[in-house]
Amino acid sequence: MSSIFEITQKDAAGRIGKLKTPHGVVETPTVMPVINPNLQAIKPSEMRSFGAQMLITNSYIISRKEELREKAMKEGLHALLDFDGPIMTDSGSFQLSVYGDIEVTNEQIIEFQKTIGSDIGVPLDIPTPPDVPRSRAESELETTLERLIEARGMVNDEMLLAGPVQGSTYPDLRQKAAESLREHKFDVYPLGAVVPLMETYRYADLVDVIVSSKKGLDPTVPVHLFGAGHPMMFALAVALGCDLFDSAAYALYAKDRRYITANGTYHIDNLSYLPCSCPICVSHTAEEMKKADNCKELLARHNLYVTFEEMRLVKQSIKEGNLLELVEQRCRTHPRMLEALKRMYSYSDWIEEHDPASKSTFFYCGPESAQRPEVLRFSNKLDRFTITGSAIIRPASKKEFKNYDNDLVFKAPFGAFPAELIEVYPFNAEVISTPDVESLGKALENTIALIELNPDAKFTFIKEEGLEHPLFEKLGKIAEIKE
Ligand code: GUN
Ligand code: ZN
């Protein structure tokens, strides 16, 4: 078992965990700032003050430059970067995917990462882009698997070893790849080649990649979403079970004069105000920031602050059991994110398997909330309620109906449930007083299913004024509806 990772708290398919590395324990979910060993405006030694626990850098870049290579081989990676916490090293696969060819073998780059004392090493996987022909995805996956197995045979306790999951945009290949890696017991499982999906706002396809990969992995292992550094999608990715992130975004966006927020990105030249209270933003006006000689460094610093701020909020949401509320909020900032939310809830049956049975009050945040795993869980358990004799289905506020064998409350998006559960999770949900069509539809579907499961009972439905939905016609055929 993967005893290097201990999960301490869960919400949806997300979790807070502790990852043990040779240079200490990190609490996940967390984001690793990407350190460019050639040019780095913000020093690695400063990264902790932003909230970083672990860094990631590129062993291929280090190995290609004599000065860096010599120092790393002699004094170690931690001395080279002047950082004594955990450092993950990538292999040069990304350079491979951009330039097509690199001058190092899998064996050499694994050996190099071991020699310089990396905490988590990465083999030379092939990041197969989205939408390639299936034959290419399959053959590259085969090569990736061979290299990963070779690497597994070379690494013992000296460093942790990552096993990247590839498979392009073929969910079955992603799942199969994950299942194969699972047998070889890697320490961390990055989901690879998702950068092109994020660059083109294909967040719904990203959800498919995450869920299909996760389905093939042991649920107790740490998962890294390779190249994901925009805080806008942390809540979503964490809710789907990603634990590690890496951000080159903080620096790359800054280079383009872009100012990151958890709700999206601004161009600094379009900002009249700085909507942030980090140390940079409280000590500069928007005009000062635009005109500063070190504008890009200021932006990089701000970008890092908001990146870690969002990750702390995600973690607090897991503690409180309202991560899905945060996901729904974040996914309303861009239509492509809204599509991702809908895609995520198309997997509510899978999320439900991981979601704790009881947590804090369910807040209805919009039509998508009707598809939440908690609602699906209730739908799946309707056959546990046995109802005989007469039954009233009434609004929670109307308590005057006494002469029935069964007292049921109707509350959207759940439907009808025994009145004594009204204060029990998730039926104690905070909902809108007039349900929208999605919520009412889900509740009526469940109510109809419950009635059909109890054909010998006689149901009376007390309909609140103003509630309209096509399913009332169907309900009227199996229950008496009173206005
Ligand atoms: N960085 C971003 N994506 C990838 C990937 O798929 N593989 C590796 N090794 N590094 C990456
Ligand atoms: Zn700021």
UniProtKB/TrEMBL annotation:
<keyword id="KW-0819">tRNA processing</keyword>
<dbReference type="Pfam" id="PF01702">
    <property type="entry name" value="TGT"/>
</dbReference>
<protein>
    <recommendedName>
        <fullName>tRNA-guanine(15) transglycosylase</fullName>
        <ecNumber>2.4.2.48</ecNumber>
    </recommendedName>
</protein>
<keyword id="KW-0328">Glycosyltransferase</keyword>
<feature type="domain" description="tRNA-guanine(15) transglycosylase-like">
    <location>
        <begin position="13"/>
        <end position="335"/>
    </location>
</feature>
<comment type="pathway">
    <text>tRNA modification; archaeosine-tRNA biosynthesis.</text>
</comment>
<comment type="function">
    <text>Exchanges the guanine residue with 7-cyano-7-deazaguanine (preQ0) at position 15 in the dihydrouridine loop (D-loop) of archaeal tRNAs.</text>
</comment>
<feature type="binding site">
    <location>
        <position position="276"/>
    </location>
    <ligand>
        <name>Zn(2+)</name>
    </ligand>
</feature>
<dbReference type="GO" id="GO:0016763">
    <property type="term" value="F:pentosyltransferase activity"/>
</dbReference>
<dbReference type="InterPro" id="IPR036511">
    <property type="entry name" value="TGT-like_sf"/>
</dbReference>
<feature type="binding site">
    <location>
        <position position="193"/>
    </location>
    <ligand>
        <name>substrate</name>
    </ligand>
</feature>
<feature type="active site" description="Nucleophile">
    <location>
        <position position="90"/>
    </location>
</feature>
<dbReference type="InterPro" id="IPR002616">
    <property type="entry name" value="tRNA_ribo_trans-like"/>
</dbReference>
<feature type="binding site">
    <location>
        <position position="281"/>
    </location>
    <ligand>
        <name>Zn(2+)</name>
    </ligand>
</feature>
<dbReference type="GO" id="GO:0008270">
    <property type="term" value="F:zinc ion binding"/>
</dbReference>
<dbReference type="InterPro" id="IPR004804">
    <property type="entry name" value="TgtA"/>
</dbReference>
<comment type="similarity">
    <text>Belongs to the archaeosine tRNA-ribosyltransferase family.</text>
</comment>
<dbReference type="GO" id="GO:0002099">
    <property type="term" value="P:tRNA wobble guanine modification"/>
</dbReference>
<dbReference type="GO" id="GO:0005737">
    <property type="term" value="C:cytoplasm"/>
</dbReference>
<feature type="binding site">
    <location>
        <position position="125"/>
    </location>
    <ligand>
        <name>substrate</name>
    </ligand>
</feature>
<keyword id="KW-0862">Zinc</keyword>
<keyword id="KW-0479">Metal-binding</keyword>
<feature type="binding site">
    <location>
        <position position="278"/>
    </location>
    <ligand>
        <name>Zn(2+)</name>
    </ligand>
</feature>
<dbReference type="InterPro" id="IPR050076">
    <property type="entry name" value="ArchSynthase1/Queuine_TRR"/>
</dbReference>
<keyword id="KW-0808">Transferase</keyword>
